[in-house]
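Meet today's protein:

…
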Amino acid sequence: MLDYLFGNKNIEKILQYLSKNKTGYAYELSRQFGCSLAPIQKTLNKLERGGLLVSLNIGKTRQFQFNPKYPFLNEIEALVKAAYRFLPEDQKLTYQRLTRKRPRRANKPLL
């Protein structure tokens, strides 16, 4: 929906995902959207160079999130959230984190 405005469909996907989940890393995003890793990495680096995103290393993983000091962050988040409301329900599910972020406790029974 916003890919014409941003000029890249991956930018819209990344912004929607980060809006819903607050953080994400390149491999997680590529797996979530079913696309190759290289374009996602290029887009994340482009958004970081532009100042919209910041990254921090957690172990060997480079985690991205919105830059709280970006001057137009509130406006961009409002635009992304408004666009999210108009997405079909099946597309909305692609922006929710579906994988576990921490390991299961030892000896915990499976339900």
Remarks:
- Helices lie at 3-6, 9-21, 26-33, 37-49, 73-85, 89-92.
- The chain has a mean pLDDT of 86.
